[in-house]
Amino acid sequence: MVNESGGSVLSGLTAELAPAAALLRALKHTSSLTRAAAELGVPQPTASRRLAALSAAVGAPLTVPAGRGIRLTRVGHVLADAAEQAVDILDHGVRRVREEIDPESGHVVLGFLHLLGRSLVPGLLRDFRADHPRTRFSLVQGSRQSIVDRITSGAIDLALVAPPPAEATLESVVLTEQELFVAVPDDHRLASRADVRMSELAGEVFVMLEHGYGLRQITDDLCAAAGFTPTVAFEGQESDTVRGLVAAGLGVALLPAFEPRPPSGVVEIPLAPRVTREIGLAWPSDRPLPPAVATFREFVRRRAGADGAQRPFA
């Protein structure tokens, strides 16, 4: 459809939406015109006029009162979702421009599993910042699934996960392997064994990480391959909590080795045959990386010997 000036109505609405995109995104997250205006650094009357003008251009209200605040209408939500994506893309472009001008002042958003935050991630950041002291990092921890979802959506730049993701929109490289052990209480019937077969754990009560964590999927798959469904007494979100429950005698768990040695009350027994999981670095394949992000990615790949023989991380 064409308007009197010769342009499409859609283009006219887009022109109206563009200046208000940041306001719509702020309203989506705050449900408050006052807080949204403060977040944008504009007077509330200015934000109110922008919102009213956009509602008039659309031909439908974008917000309705809700208690002491406001909430977006269905139409408002549609526009706010689009505005959020647009502003995120623009933010990404601004980051790339700034880092093209001064790559050493860049910002990297790194996602990783809780288990990797004990030594792997701190060691990588320490060594990288020795040569790039002005690079800033934002660190995001979570389950494997949440980290993969966030890097796919663009909320994070790089991810250290196990196993590496297979999503078509992501590229990854295996950095190292990590052996898994059966963690049992120190007075457990298997505590003195040199190794344990998965089938011997069929009658045990398990303490596990929640669904969505890579270790949970590995444990479920190993139990299924051994011919049984594990009895799960407790589920947690952090390996330290799981180990604490094992030490209290509440079950057994499959976990990587605790460095430098198992905590009091826990014995770690190798599996027979040996079981390992791959730890990989992932990044988006459908958008270019800002310079600082690309520099850190290459640093991690070199540290792992990803272009040749792999070697464990320190």
UniProtKB/TrEMBL annotation:
Q: Which UniProt keywords apply?
A: DNA-binding, Transcription, Transcription regulation
Tell me the InterPro entries matching this sequence. LysR_HTH_N (IPR000847), LysR_subst-bd (IPR005119), WH-like_DNA-bd_sf (IPR036388), WH_DNA-bd_sf (IPR036390)
Q: Where is the HTH lysR-type domain?
A: 24-73
Task: Name one matching Pfam family.
Answer: HTH_1
Statement: the UniProt record of this protein carries the keyword Zinc: no
Gene Ontology CC entries for this record? protein-DNA complex
For this UniProt entry, the molecular function terms from Gene Ontology, in alphabetical order, are:
DNA binding; DNA-binding transcription factor activity
Organism's domain of life? Bacteria
The similarity annotation says: Belongs to the LysR transcriptional regulatory family.
Protein name in the entry:
Transcriptional regulator
Identify the species of origin. Answer: Saccharomonospora cyanea NA-134
